[in-house]
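Chain A, query sequence.
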Amino acid sequence: MTRPLLTLCDLDETYCGRLYEYLKENLKLKFNIQAFTTVDILVDYSRKNTSSLLVVSESAFEELGKVLGQNLFKNILVLDEEAGILREEENRFDDRNIIHTTKYQKAGKIVDTIIDFCAEKAESFEGLTVGISDNEGTVIGLFSPVSKCGQTTLALKMGDVLSSSGKTIMLSFDSFSSLPQKLDAEADGTINDLMYYAEEDKNKFCIYLEKIKRSIGNIDVIPPAKIAMQIKEIDYDSLKMLLGLLIHDAGYKYVILDLTEYPNGFFDILRLCNKLFTITRPNSADAYRVEAYEDVLRLNGHEDILASTIKVVIPDLREGAAVSRYVKELLKREGLISDKTT
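Chain A, predicted structure.
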C-alpha cells in the first residue's frame, strides 16, 4: 500500500531540515514525508504527486499563491511567522482545508496539530497507519480479586520493561482511576472512544489512536473509562477486534490489559491473554478472596483459565528497585523477555 504523502516546505533551509528530521522521528502516522526549500520545485513535484497534507511556512505559502500553486493541495497547515490570525476567507470559495498554527513553538506541538488535523479531516487520510506488523503480538492480562494490590503499578512496570523489547501499550479497565494523573497530558478520549472509532471505521483507526493515546515513560496508555457502566459497554468481540488493530495496524508487540472492572464477556476476555497474572498477598483475608475467585472459575467450567493463571506476590511498592528487579525476573521466567533485555 502506498503511504499518504506529506509535503513540507519552508524557505529557511535550517528550519526545514530540522522539522523534517523531527517529523520523520516523532510523527508516528506513516506518511511519506518530502521536504522542499524552493516553491517552484514543490510545485513541479506536486503536479506529478498528490499530497495528502502540505505543511508550509507562511512566507512559502505566500510565494505559492503567486505562482497559483495553492490549488494543488486540499489540506494545508500554514506555519505562521508573524502574529497568527485565522484567515477564514481562505476556505470560502473552494473545498480546501486550511488551518494555521505558529511556526515558533515546540516541534511536538506541531506534531499534535498535524494529528488533530488528520483526525478532524479523517476522510482525507483514509488508510493512514502507524506501522503495519506481521507479528501475532502478545496479550498480557492482569486481574486479581484482591483490592488495592498494586495491579496497575505492576502493569506499568511490566510495560516499561517490555518496551525495551518491542512497542508496548496498556489498556486500563478501571473506573474512577487515578491513572490520568500520571499521563503526560490531558486525554482527548478514553478506551470507549477508541472502541467506537475501531468499530465505525477501521481505515481511520490509527489516526484516532494517535490522538487518544498518551505515554508514561516508554509505554503508551489508553486512558480508562470514567465509570464502571462504560466498561460494561465493552464486550469480548469488540475487544478482540481492537487487539487485532493494535497489533497488526498499529504495530504493537505487547498489549497489556489491566483488568480491574469486568467488561462484558469477562471470562472469554481472560482467554484472549497469552499470559494471565493474578496478584495475591500473604494474609488470610486476601487468600480467602483468591480462593473464592478460583471456586467461581471451577464451578463455571473455567478450569482452563485457572490452569493458565500465574500467581504473583509483588514486593512492597515503596521499594522501587526491588519491584523493578522482581518484574524483570518474572518476565524472563515466563519467556516474555530474554536475558539480553536491560
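The chain has two domains: 5-124, 138-333. Residues 138-333 form a domain with the Rossmann fold fold (CATH 3.40.50.300).
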